[in-house]
Design brief:
Blueprint lengths: L18 E6 H16 L8 E7 L2 H5 L5 E4 L10 H22 L5 E7 L5 H14 L3 E8 L6 H17 L5 E6 L5 H16 L12 H9 L2 E9 L5 H9 L15 E5 L11 H8 L4 E5 L6 E9 L3 H12 L2 H12 L29 H14 L1
Parallel strand pairs: 1-2, 1-4, 2-3, 4-5, 5-6, 6-7, 8-9
Antiparallel strand pairs: 7-10, 8-10
Length: 382
Amino acid sequence: MNENKNIMRKRSINDRLKITVIWCGACGNGICAEIQKDVFALEGNKSNVSFIGINTSTEDLATVDLDHKIHLNNSKGAACNRENGVQDLAESIEIILPELQSYIIEDSIVFIATSLGGGTGSAITPHLASILLGLGFRVGIIAVLPSDNESLKIKDNSRQTFNEIEGLKPQLGSIFILDNNSADKQQINRTFASLFTSVMCINNKSQDGNMDLAEIEACLTTPSFSIITKVSRKNGNTAKIVEILNDNNNIFAKRDDKVVSVIGISEAVSAKESNIDMTGLRKEIGIAPTEFHGYLSASEENVIILSGLTMPYGRVDTMAESVDSEADIIQNAMKATTQVRTANVSDVFRKPVIDTTTQTTNEPKMLGMAALADLKARRISK
C-alpha cells in the first residue's frame, strides 16, 4: 500500500517545538494575535507555546486577547519617539523582567515581533533582544518595514532600528522582515501568521526522510534574514514555489541576491510522488550549504524555509535615501519647533529719547538754562 495513504493529514501542532512570541508595540500586537489565533485553532497540545504582549500604551494592550500582557510602568505611549520608548523600558525593565521570564517557555525559541518604525516596538526590541540573549535565550525577530507612503519619521525610525538589529545579527536566530509595500497591513499579518503556524505544524513521518526537531530549530535559529513560503499538496512543484518567492506581492522584503545558508523543505507527499526538482530549485533560489528535506508531513502543505539569507539592504537603503533626500523639510520642521526669533519691532508710540552726548559744530544741542550756561562758559574762555 502506498505509504502516503496510511497517513491521515491534519493541521496539528508539533508539540515538541517550543516557541514563545513576544509582541512589542501596536504592529507586533497584530502579528502576535494572528499567530495565537491560528495556533489555538490547531489540534494537539499547545503547552509549549506562549504569547506575550509588551507595550507602553494601555489602549493598545486592551485591543488584543493574549494570555500575558505587560505594561511598561507609568507610560502613556511613545508617540513615535524612540527615545521615549527606550526611557520607558529603562525605567521598567527591573520590574517587568522577572514577570516576562516567567511567561517564556523553558528552552523555547523566543521571537520578538515589532514594527521597525514605531516609537515603542522599534525602540525596545533591540534592547530587549540583547537582554534576553545575555540571559541565554535563543532569540529571533519578526520585523515589519514601513510602506513608501509612511511618514519620514517612521522611515527614519525604521533605518535606526534595522541598524541596531543588524548589530545583533550574529547572535540572533531567524530575522523575518516583512514589507508593508507588499499588501494591506492586516493581510500581511494574517499571511505571516499562517506561514509561521505551518512551520509549527511540520511533523514528518516517512521512511524517505524527515525534518526532525533539531532541523526545524536549525532553520529558525540560523542568523540573518529568513523567508517562509508554502504551497498546497497539489501545487507542490518547483515552478509554483519559485513563482510565489518571486512574486512582487510576496510579504517578505525583496532579496538582494541568491545567497542562502539553509534550505528546509517539508513535503506533504512521499519522495516518490514529489514534484520538486531540487536542481531546478537551487538554480532559482540559490545553493545552500545545508539542506533538510522531509516527506509525508502530517498536513496537506508543502512548507519551504530559507534561512541565513543576505539582509535586504537594498530595500532599507532605498528607504534611507528617501529620508535623506528630504533633509531640508526635516530641518525646517525642527527649526519651526525649536528656534526663537529675536523680535525686530519698532514702538511708534514710544517717546523719543534725545541724545545729549552728540553735538555738531553748527547747531546748539542744549536748551534753556543749560544752553545759557554753555554760552557763558564759551565767553569766559575767550
